[in-house]
Amino acid sequence: NSHPCVKYNTALFLLPVCGVAPLNTKIVGGQDASPGSWPWQVSLQTNDFHFCGGSLINSNWVLTAAHCFASITASQVTVYLGDQSLSNQTSNPNVVSRSVSQLIIHPNYSSSTHDSDLALLKLSSSVTFTNYITPICLAAAGSKFFNGTLTWNRTNSKPSDVNTLLEVQIPVVGNRKCNCLYGVGDITDNMVCAGLLAGGKDSCQGDSGGPLVSKQSGVWVQAGIVSFGIGCAQPNYPGLYTRVSQYQDWINQQITSNQPGFVTFTSTGTDGDLNRNVAPYLLLSQIFHLVMDHMFSIGERSGLQEGQFSTWTLLLRSKAFPERDVI
Ligand SMILES: *[C@@H]1O[C@H](CO)[C@@H](O)[C@H](O)[C@H]1NC(C)=O
Ligand SMILES: *[C@@H]1O[C@H](CO)[C@@H](O)[C@H](O)[C@H]1NC(C)=O
Ligand SMILES: *[C@@H]1O[C@H](CO)[C@@H](O)[C@H](O)[C@H]1NC(C)=O
Ligand SMILES: *[C@@H]1O[C@H](CO)[C@@H](O)[C@H](O)[C@H]1NC(C)=O
């Protein structure tokens, strides 16, 4: 099979056990997510407030950001899975919740540099997978994400919908370029940047800990964890994500049984971050088209082919408890 790192359930028609969203028919972002579109997305809540997102990576563990726990301890957290809207989670039969029996923060996490901004949460008991609750595959060591990607929109344009899961596509910005924007050295190899350089689409507070995902050969793979940024959706300040592929060894050291599925994500073509003069390029969507036309007019290039690099970040929005680090 084409994903040697994915564990396949051979009893069930070779379905991979991670990264499959049977109810996700979406190609283009920019709308409320329909139920089941992103079945690995979880909401972390304390006293009924959503404070961070996260992703389910096997039946017992959630991956999220370390900075979510600056002032919250594991015993205060309830994890909601199968949730599509924070406003009806109690009446939604697809939603299950768990408390947290263990919190593991990466030992190299630094709140000043934002490096290694990741944490693992062990659920109090395992969850059963459904069409609404499925683990995401993680990007394996050596995965390559050229610039050009997708994420969640965070705006206040529809405040009444603030509790609904929204989705948006944005491009990955190469680390070299991102370092130029943020200040050389601030963006480490442990981070991925994504955002429109023209501004207007970005993750923001409340999205922290949530996944940045890309689809490859029908399987969704998590590239990043929402970490920090300067403001939200500001021109020339893309969002920063923890680069999941740098942490395969560490994650596998913490989760010793029933390990999450790791998939090597491969970008083909030429890395636009290294070479400015290339890039055959296909549109991902009409909205994206307009924006990218603008970007091309100011000299941007994306070395992506359609479908190859659709990266999304999902935000479970909440007015109540903003938490992405904004610097
Ligand atoms: C993101 O928010 C902006 C501002 O409200 C809006 O114009 C745009 O359509 C949104 N994009 C998506 C993809 O939701
Ligand atoms: C929950 O709310 C969302 C958004 O309003 C809606 O699409 C979904 O159908 C609701 N689910 C249930 C089970 O009521
Ligand atoms: C923490 O960082 C040090 C220095 O870069 C590195 O040698 C070590 O392996 C890291 N620890 C983990 C758990 O990754
Ligand atoms: C891709 O890399 C090129 C070269 O550094 C850069 O100019 C461009 O902004 C990048 N494209 C995107 C979408 O980030």
From TrEMBL:
Q: Which UniProt keywords apply?
A: Disulfide bond, Glycoprotein, Hydrolase, Protease, Serine protease, Signal
Q: Name one GO molecular function term.
A: serine-type endopeptidase activity
Which Pfam families does this entry report, sorted A to Z? Trypsin (PF00089)
InterPro entries from the xrefs?
Peptidase_S1_PA, Peptidase_S1_PA_chymotrypsin, Peptidase_S1A, Trypsin_dom, TRYPSIN_HIS, TRYPSIN_SER
Sequence ranges assigned to domain Peptidase S1 in this UniProt record: 27-256
Concerning Gene3D superfamilies, the annotation shows: Trypsin-like serine proteases
The membrane-spanning stretches of this chain are none
CDD domains in the record, alphabetically? Tryp_SPc (cd00190)
Q: Which residues form the signal peptide?
A: 1-25
Offer one example of a GO biological process linked to this entry.
Answer: proteolysis
Please state what the protein is called.
Answer: Peptidase S1 domain-containing protein
> Which species expresses this protein natively?
Pygocentrus nattereri
